[in-house]
Design a protein that fits this description.
alpha+beta; globular; DNA-binding
Length: 154
DNA sequence: GCCAACGTTGGC
DNA sequence: GCCAACGTTGGC
């Protein structure tokens, strides 16, 4: 079983939105490397849900893969900001899995805290300038982050 | 709001 | 196929 991390700006789609909807198609990713990771996701795998850009920046909860990737419908929708005129139904370019809500952490684990943990130093998330919005996570990293949710902030 | 880092585009 | 220009991401 692999582990993953997805980024989202909470004003666009937050862990609370995820909690409310229970399931959502993770559409709109328009980066090839990220797309390839989305296509590798298997049902049941756990995904860290990261809030970017807005305070508190950090890991807000965990979701799970509910279905493997299907062609992203927004690439065919002319009215969508994610429309891609080069994509066709016969030859789609973008794919998205369905994600389902698992849990919201009692506190968002802040980015600064993640940076202070040695065991997480290799995460793409923490590499300077990394903008990858879907990325793999090592099991050890996943567990280390879950542990942080039990730490009471001082 | 700034800007560094990155991915993509397009001219050659 | 190179690479400059551009747009976007995302932390600060």
């Amino acid at each position: 079983m692999a582990y993953w991390l997805v980024k989202s700006e909470p004003s666009v789609y937050s862990i609370d939105d995820m909690c409310r909807e229970k399931r959502t198609l993770w559409h709109g990713v328009r980066n090839y490397q990220a797309r390839n990771f989305l296509r590798s996701m298997k049902v049941g795998e756990q995904v860290l849900f990261y809030h970017s850009s807005e305070e508190p920046i950090g890991v807000a909860g965990v979701v799970a893969v509910a279905s493997t990737a299907v062609p992203d419908p927004s690439q065919f929708d002319k009215k969508s900001e994610y429309f891609d005129e080069q994509a066709t139904r016969e030859n789609p370019r973008w794919f998205c899995p369905e994600l389902q809500f698992l849990k919201k952490f009692p506190r968002t684990i802040p980015l600064v805290e993640l940076k202070s943990i040695r065991a997480l130093a290799k995460m793409p998330l923490l590499q300077r300038g990394s903008r990858l919005s879907v990325q793999p996570v090592q099991e050890s990293e996943f567990e280390a982050i879950l542990k942080l949710t039990q730490v009471v902030a001082t």
